[in-house]
Every structure is written in structure tokens, then in C-alpha cells.
Write a structure and sequence with these properties.
Among the domains are: 365-470, Immunoglobulins (Immunoglobulin-like, Sandwich), CATH 2.60.40; 488-565, Immunoglobulin-like; 576-661, Immunoglobulin-like (Sandwich); 672-757, Immunoglobulin-like (Sandwich); 764-934, no CATH class. Helices cover 3% and strands 38% of the residues. An 11-stranded parallel sheet has the order 1-2-4-7-10-13-16-19-22-25-28, with helices on one face. A 10-stranded parallel sheet has the order 3-5-8-11-14-17-20-23-26-29, with no helix packed on it.
Length: 939
């Protein structure tokens, strides 16, 4: 039999409503028929209130069909569709699945869902509930139920599921159309689930969103309770979730991903007046993003029962409870053993946890008082640093307590905090007097420097939050530096080393020595002033270290650097000496001139030039290195002066002596040029070719021939004089080369250029071998002409006779061409005689001549009939006539013509031509080897 237990409510809240619902349930039982022993599926095809295809008819049919029936929807047309009963619908008395998602177009695959079936109770009368399920194992999903005068959905049986419904809103989930929400009076019913497709929207109800009355094992998970479908706008319920009248083992939320409910914009978010229930993993008072305030107008969680758990120690069990109009969690009088653990509680109008709903409850010695959660004493935090939270707890002796710690961005105006961010916990055990001191190690959370804590005893009694303790940041010490002179104490007045240190929490710091100096004595005062006395005669670096303290925490270790300045002595510079060869730079690497210098105070010196060298160029570098380049060809002594500097003082002036060794250098010979005329020797007196040659080391040079001329003869003397004879008739360029020597080294090879000027040469003409005797008194001789300057073809010949009676000028004629010419002479035959012919050859500018002597014998008419003709030593034409002639040519190339008669011809030396003529002729000295020739008159 179905029963409802009604809790005694404050101010009689809702009592009449529950009595009327009970009456309705009873009436429903009276009308129930006996179901048939089979199961069916029923389809709603119309929005009509009754008749075939109506929801009313489907419920009636399903109740009459034994087994797990299904009521689905397939209403034709375009939804959504509204079913508006005009009276109370039949109660569900046999297991059924009422599936609004079966209507085409409906879906809960994503959130927000698309719902197509609305069950509207505005015409159902009063009292009237939407759906009342009296059969175990039923499911209601995919429906929008609103505007019934009593609960949209009543669960008075066990193991039912309520999935993906809008309960109290319009079909869009954005406007309130509610009445009393969900009423649960059975066991192990599930409202929602851990996935979005199971989520219900339970909002906009003037009554409670969910009321769990004398039920056990109810699970409320993943729902939006009090908001619109987006989870960002308020629609509200009178209370979000109410657990009453002996309801137990209820789970609101859970630790599984998606199990937590969004509960906001209600009166109390969760109201519990029974024992043994669990509220965990929920978001209470914010929107779905957890960043915007929606709140609940009263408490986030209101507990008026025992042994209820708010949050928990399991991962994900903590609730977010914020923006409540009263306390975050209120534990009412008479309620004990309610653990409130690992939650995020902040920005509530009242205390984060309020025992007895009366503001901060002060601790009492020994924690002997009683009340809500036994008015458990809260911890007292004594300090909070960047690494630990320390404090004390006074409570029940020899008892284990769980101390939870929280970080907050601000403190509650009461001075006792909330718990904005859970940072950890530790278990502590009080001593026999009920006291314990604790220190909890943690890492500070940025922007949340206000720390609080709670204490929970073994029975689950959790205290209110402790008084706020602001995180104490340690001081920050900065390094310092000072200086003093050797053997001079250093005294620094307050604030001394603390002058650049800081502490965001405290303006008062003290100095604490960590390590003293190594090279002196120190007195460090707490106000940061100090006196440091350096060790006698010490100079250099020293230091000590200290920490700044704010009375609770010490800073980092800072270093105070002290420089003890030496009393500076000037450096001492020593003279230096170097050598190099002439024309060779001297480069000396660092430390160079500083290598033998010293400074008792400083190992580092620099060189500064005072005067440079006289016979060279110098680059002196600060590190003492230098480059010295002697003046070209200079040898001998040179010097420079410098000073060494330690950066403050300079040394004495030191001298750097440099010896430039003389190194013999080769002479330098220069080219020369001379001219002469063709066929004319050129003689040049000393110093001749050496006249323009140089040697920086020696004034005495000698000339040595390298290569002679190509077109002449040369005599080159060691003193540079020479005689050059050009080749005969050569004109043009010629040259020879030589080197100058200093006795050790030779110069470069120099060239002497010779120009042989052209001088026009007269042509030449000579008598050559051969000839002809033509007739008495006529002969022809051969001539050879030559010209070194002109073509022989252009040469002209002429001749004059000294004896016109013997040879007239007109009797001389020339023939031939080129170099081979002939001269024909026709002598007078009437008388003998001698004529000298001057034969001239001319090139048009110059000429030369040849003398040919013509001898003509006596004619035959003279007596006796013999004649002797003797020639000269030069070329002769010997012409015998009609007598018996004896002809002697003597020297030269002679033409011997015997003529008529018996002639005796003697040519003499050289090449002679013999012609006998008629008669018996004799050649006495014919010698072809010397060029003699003869004609056919001789065999």
C-alpha cells in the first residue's frame, strides 16, 4: 500500500498541500482496474485530452497491461505540442516508460535539449498533479510539465528514473511556468544523472524544486535547479532541494564527473531536516560558469538534522557555496555530527559556516559547550608565511581532529573568514589538556593571502571558520656595498644595511648577522648600523652577510661588499733597449716596455707616450706593446720615452733605446738611352751608364754586362764608360743590359737603349765578271750596282769620257736592269789612244763613281803591224784593232778584245774576259778559278 509521511514544517509550510496529494493518491487507488497479464507499447498521436491516441487513454491502457509498457509519442504536424488535461490524469500503476523523446524532432543528445511534448496543467483544476507514479521501475523522460496546482511529478514508488525533463518552465526552458516541482516518497529513485542527456531543468516553481519526503536512497544528480536552461539566468524555486520527514541516505550530487547539480536562485539551496544524507560536488549560488553570482536568498545549505555530510574528503566531493543571502552553511540547533569538509565557500552574506545561525560563536576553554555540531571550537591561526601556517587548537583532550586550511582573497566583515579555496588538511591530536600546536606546510596561492581553518572531530562535528590570518611575507634584503681606505674604519649610521630592504607586511626590521668579514672586525647593530675596521695594511675586497627580520620571518641572506682602497703608490718604470735592422719594422708584443715595470698596488699598468722617436714612426699601445718603423734607409740610434700609469698615478719617465743596424742594400740601377748615326761608333765616357744609378751604402759602383746588343759591337767598362759600334749600314733600335755592383750585391737589371739614326748611303757600282767584244773598237762590260737604302731598280747610271777623240760620251750606253747592268763603249777606230771613263751611279740623292780605262790599239793602217796595249791595275777595256796585238790587262776586272790579227792576251789578276777575234790568238793566263771567262774565239 502507498503511504506518504508528512514532516512537521516550519510555520506549517505546505502541510495542506501534502494532505490533498495524499487524498488524490487514495482516490487513484480506488479507481484502479486489475491489469491484464501482458505488456504493450502505446503511442500518443493527438493532443486531445481523451479518446483514442490521447495521453489519458495511453496511461489507462498501460495501467491495464501487465508488464513494462512504453508510452511513446508520434503526433503528426510541426511541434512543439501541448497536451492540456481538463482533469487529473490517471496515476501510473504499472511500470511504464513515458518517452517524450520519441516524438519526431525531440532530442536530448546535447544541452540544451529540444523537447516537443508539453504537459500543461493550467486547465486541470485544483488540486491536480501532473504525473503521479505509483509503479516501481518507471521512467519519465523528454517532457515539459508545468502549471499544475500540485507537483508536476510525484514519485511514490521505487527505482524510478526522471531524465531530461523541464519541470516548472515553458518549453524553451527560459520562462517560469511552475507549481510545486518534484515530490519523492519512494526509495532509490534517480532524478537526473551524470551526463547532460540525463539532466533535468527544475526551475520556476513557487513550491520546492525537489521535495524528498520520507524516502531513502534518492539520487539527485546533474540537474539545473533554479536557473534557466542555459544555467546563467535566475528562474528560482521556493527551496531548491528539501529533504524532510525521515528521508535518508539521499545523495545530492556526487564525486563522479557530471554528478554535481547547479543549484541557484532559490530560497535555501538545499534544506535538510533529516539525518544521514550527503551533499557533495555541487555548485550552489553561482551560474554554470562559476564566475557570476546568482545566489540563493537564504542559506546555501541549511541543516536541521544529524550526520549529514556537506562535501567530503574524497576527490571532487567539495561543494562550491557562494553568494547566499544568509550563511553559506547553517547548522541549526540540535543538529550534530555534520562534517563540512573540503568545500569552496565564499562571498556569502552571513558566515561561511554558521553554527546556530547567530553569527560568530566564540571558542570556549576546553570546548565543553554544546549546540549545533557541539559548537566545535575553531583553530586559532597564529602565523602564516610563504611556507607554513601555524596555530593552535583547544578542544577535547586526547582527540584526533582534522584541521582544514583555506585561502581567501578577503576576510569576512566579522573577522572570521570563509573558505574560498581549499589548500589542504592535516590531522592533529590534542594533549591531555585539549591543546595542540600545529604547523602546516603549503604553497601560497596568488591573490589569496587571507588564511582560515576549520576543525572537525572524529564524530564529524565541524567548527565555524577561524579568525582570518593574513599571510606574512618574509622581508626582502638587498645587497649593499661600501668602501673605505686602507687602515680607515668604516662607520655607517642607521638604517645602514636595512636602508634598501623591504617588507610588505611590516615597516620595522632588524638586522641579524649571518657571517662576518674575512679581513676586518665588524660590529653590526640591530638597527642596521655598523662599524667595520679593516685589518692593518689590508686592501682589497671583503664582505659580510646578514638577514633582515620582521620578528617572525627572516629574509634571504644578503651580502654587504666592502672595498678597502689601497693608498696608491706610483708605478716604477725601467729603461728598455731593442734592436732592429734598417728598413725593418720592430714589433714587440705585450707587456712590451711594461715588462720590467712594477707597481706595489696594482698588477695592471698602461703605457703612455711622452716623446716619440726621431728617426722612425711609432705606435705605442696601452698594454706596452709597440711597433717601431725606422725611417727608410736609416741606421743608427733612436729612442722614445714613456710613463707607466696605474690609472691614477704615472711613473717616472723611462727611455726606450732602439738601435737600427745597418744592413747592406743592393744598388738601384736606372735605365739609360743613347743615340748615334748609322755606321758611326758611339763612345760614352765614365760614369757612363752608372751616372744615374744609386746605392745608399756605397758611393763606388761598377758596371757588369748582362746581355750585349743585337746590332753592333760593345765594349762596356767597369767604370760605366762604353763604346758601341753599330753594324755596317744598320739603323734602328738596339740595346744591352747591365747590373750595378757595390762589390757585394748586384742591382736590378737595367736596360741601355741605343738608337742608330739612319744616314743615307750612296749607291755603288763595280765591274763584274764577263762581258762581250762586239766588233772592232766596241766592247761591253758587266756592271753590278747596289744601294743599302734604295731599290736597285731605281738607280741610274751615267758616264763621261776624258778623251772624246777616243771615246765620245755619246758612244757610251747602258743596259741591263736591277743590280746587273752593262756598259757598252764604242771607241773611235781611226786612231788608237786611251780614255778614262767616269761611271756614276745615283739614287737621286747620293751617287758614287767608278773609273774604267779604255785602251784602243792603233788601227791596221799604221806600221809596224803590231801593237802592245797595257792596262791599269783597275778595270780596263783593252780594244785591239787590226794589228797583231799584245794586250796586258794587269790588275782588275779587264775586258780584252784582240780584234783582227794574231793577238797575245794576258789578263792578269782578277776576273778577266778574253775575246780573240779573227786570227790566231793566245791567252797566256786563263784562270777560270779566279773568274776568267772567254768567248768562242778561243777553243
Amino acid at each position: 500500500m502507498f503511504t506518504i509521511s508528512v514532516r512537521p514544517l516550519q510555520s506549517g509550510r505546505g502541510l495542506g498541500r501534502f494532505l490533498v496529494l495524499l487524498a488524490l493518491l487514495g482516490a487513484g487507488f480506488a479507481a484502479l482496474p486489475v491489469p491484464a497479464a501482458h505488456a504493450d507499447a502505446f503511442v500518443v498521436t493527438t493532443t486531445a485530452d481523451d479518446g483514442p491516441g490521447s495521453l489519458r487513454q495511453a496511461i489507462t491502457d498501460a495501467n491495464n497491461s501487465l508488464g513494462a509498457d512504453t508510452i511513446s509519442f508520434n503526433i503528426p504536424g510541426t511541434g512543439p505540442f501541448t497536451i492540456a488535461p481538463t482533469s487529473v490524469l490517471p496515476f501510473i500503476t504499472d511500470a511504464v516508460v513515458i518517452d517524450g523523446l520519441s516524438q519526431p524532432g525531440a532530442s536530448c543528445a546535447s544541452w540544451p535539449p529540444t523537447l516537443e511534448i508539453e504537459l500543461n496543467g493550467s486547465n486541470a483544476g485544483t488540486p491536480a498533479s501532473g504525473l503521479v507514479i505509483q509503479a516501481n521501475g518507471s521512467t519519465v523522460q523528454g517532457l515539459v510539465i508545468n502549471q499544475f496546482s500540485y507537483p508536476e511529478l510525484g514519485l511514490s514508488s521505487n527505482n524510478n528514473n526522471v531524465l531530461c525533463n523541464f519541470l516548472g518552465t515553458d518549453i524553451t526552458g527560459t520562462s517560469a511556468r511552475g507549481n510545486t516541482g518534484v515530490f519523492v516518497n519512494g526509495a532509490t529513485n534517480v532524478i537526473g544523472g551524470t551526463i547532460s542527456s540525463a539532466r533535468n531543468l527544475i526551475s520556476g516553481n513557487p513550491g520546492d524544486g525537489i521535495e524528498i519526503n520520507n524516502a531513502s536512497g534518492t539520487q539527485v544528480q546533474g540537474n539545473y535547479i533554479g536557473t534557466d536552461v542555459t544555467g546563467t539566468q535566475p528562474l528560482g524555486n521556493t527551496f531548491g532541494v528539501v529533504i524532510e520527514n525521515g528521508a535518508s541516505n539521499t545523495t545530492i550530487g556526487g564525486t563522479t564527473q557530471g554528478a554535481g547539480n547547479l543549484i541557484a536562485s532559490n530560497g535555501n539551496g538545499v534544506f535538510i531536516e533529516t539525518a544521514g544524507n550527503l551533499v557533495e560536488g555541487n555548485t550552489i549560488g553561482t551560474d554554470v560558469t562559476t564566475t557570476n553570482a546568482l545566489g540563493n536568498t537564504s542559506a546555501g545549505v541549511y541543516v536541521a538534522g544529524a550526520s549529514n555530510t556537506i562535501g567530503g574528503t574524497t576527490q571532487g566531493a567539495g561543494n562550491l557555496i557562494a553568494y547566499s543571502g544568509a550563511g553559506g552553511v547553517i547548522i541549526q540547533a540540535g543538529s550534530v555530527a555534520n562534517p563540512i569538509e573540503a568545500n569552496t565557500i565564499y562571498s556569502n552574506a552571513g558566515l561561511g559556516i554558521d553554527l546556530n545561525n547567530d553569527g560568530v560563536t566564540s571558542n570556549d576553554p576546553g570546548d565543553a559547550d554544546t549546540g549545533p555540531n557541539n559548537l566545535q571550537n575553531f583553530p586559532v591561526l597564529t602565523a602564516a608565511t610563504s611556507s607554513s601556517i601555524t596555530g593552535t587548537l583547544n578542544s577535547t583532550p586526547a582527540t584526533i581532529f582534522r584541521i582544514e586550511f583555506f585561502a581567501n582573497s578577503s576576510c569576512d566583515p566579522s573577522g572570521n573568514g570563509e573558505g574560498e579555496q581549499y589548500v589542504g588538511s592535516e590531522d592533529v591530536t590534542t594533549d591531555s589538556s585539549g591543546n595542540i600546536s600545529f604547523s602546516f606546510s603549503y604553497t601560497p596561492i596568488s591573490g589569496k593571502a587571507i588564511l582560515t581553518a576549520t576543525a572537525t572531530d572524529p564524530n564529524g562535528n565541524t567548527s565555524e571558520f577561524s579568525a582570518c590570518r593574513t599571510l606574512n611575507n618574509p622581508p626582502v634584503a638587498q645587497d649593499d656595498s661600501y668602501s673605505t681606505d686602507e687602515n680607515t674604519p668604516l662607520t655607517v649610521a642607521a638604517p645602514g644595511v636595512l636602508g634598501n630592504d623591504s617588507d610588505v607586511d611590516s615597516p620595522t626590521l632588524t638586522a641579524q648577522l649571518v657571517t662576518g668579514p674575512s679581513h676586518g672586525q665588524l660590529t653590526l647593530n640591530s638597527d642596521g648600523s655598523f662599524t667595520y675596521t679593516p685589518t692593518t695594511n689590508y686592501s682589497g675586497g671583503d664582505s659580510f652577510m646578514y638577514q633582515a627580520s620582521d620578528g617572525q620571518l627572516s629574509s634571504n641572506v644578503a651580502s654587504v661588499s666592502i672595498t678597502v682602497n689601497a693608498v696608491n703608490q706610483p708605478p716604477v718604470a725601467q729603461n728598455d733597449s731593442y734592436t732592429t735592422n734598417g728598413n725593418k719594422p720592430l714589433t714587440v708584443a705585450a707587456p712590451g716596455v711594461l715588462g720590467n715595470d712594477s707597481d706595489v698596488d696594482s698588477p695592471t699598468l698602461t703605457a703612455q707616450l711622452v716623446t716619440g722617436p726621431s728617426h722612425g714612426q711609432l705606435t705605442l699601445n696601452p698594454n706596452g706593446s709597440f711597433t717601431y718603423t725606422p725611417t727608410t734607409n736609416y741606421s743608427g740610434a733612436d729612442s722614445l720615452t714613456y710613463q707607466a700609469s696605474d690609472g691614477q698615478l704615472t711613473s717616472n719617465v723611462a727611455t726606450v733605446s732602439i738601435t737600427v743596424n745597418n744592413v747592406n742594400k743592393p744598388p738601384v740601377a736606372h735605365n739609360d738611352s743613347y743615340t748615334t748615326n748609322e755606321n758611326k761608333p758611339r763612345t760614352v765616357a765614365a760614369p757612363g751608364v752608372l751616372g744615374n744609378d744609386k746605392d745608399v751604402d756605397s758611393a763606388s759602383l761598377t758596371a757588369q754586362l748582362v746581355s750585349g746588343p743585337s746590332h753592333g759591337q760593345l765594349t762596356l767598362n767597369t767604370d760605366g764608360s762604353f763604346t758601341y759600334t753599330p753594324a755596317t749600314n744598320y739603323s734602328g733600335a738596339d740595346s744591352f743590359t747591365y747590373q750595378a755592383s757595390d762589390g757585394q750585391l748586384l742591382s736590378n737589371v737595367a736596360t741601355v737603349s741605343l738608337t742608330v739614326n739612319h744616314v743615307n748611303q750612296p749607291p755603288s757600282v763595280v765591274v763584274s765578271a764577263g762581258g762581250a767584244c762586239l766588233q772592232d773598237g766596241t766592247g761591253r762590260i758587266n756592271l753590278t750596282v747596289a744601294d743599302a737604302d734604295s731599290s736597285v731598280s731605281s738607280l741610274t747610271l751615267s758616264a763621261t769620257s776624258t778623251n772624246q777623240q777616243v771615246v765620245a760620251n755619246t758612244a757610251i750606253s747602258f743596259g741591263g736592269s736591277g743590280a746587273q747592268r752593262t756598259m757598252k763603249v764604242q771607241a773611235q777606230t781611226v786612231q788608237g789612244g786611251q780614255a778614262t771613263l767616269t761611271v756614276k751611279v745615283s739614287d737621286g740623292s747620293a751617287q758614287s763613281s767608278l773609273t774604267v780605262t779604255v785602251f784602243v790599239g792603233d788601227p791596221a793602217t799604221k806600221k809596224p803591224n803590231s801593237d802592245t796595249i797595257n792596262g791599269t791595275d783597275g778595270p780596263d777595256m783593252l780594244l785591239g784593232l787590226g794589228r797583231n796585238d799584245t794586250i796586258n790587262g794587269n790588275g782588275g776586272d779587264d775586258l780584252l778584245c784582240g780584234g783582227m790579227g794574231n793577238d797575245i792576251l794576258t789578263g792578269g789578276s782578277d776576273a778577266d774576259f778574253f775575246s780573240g777575234g779573227s786570227g790566231t790568238d793566245t791567252i797566256t793566263d786563263y784562270n777560270p778559278t779566279q773568274g776568267d771567262t772567254k768567248d768562242s774565239t778561243f777553243p
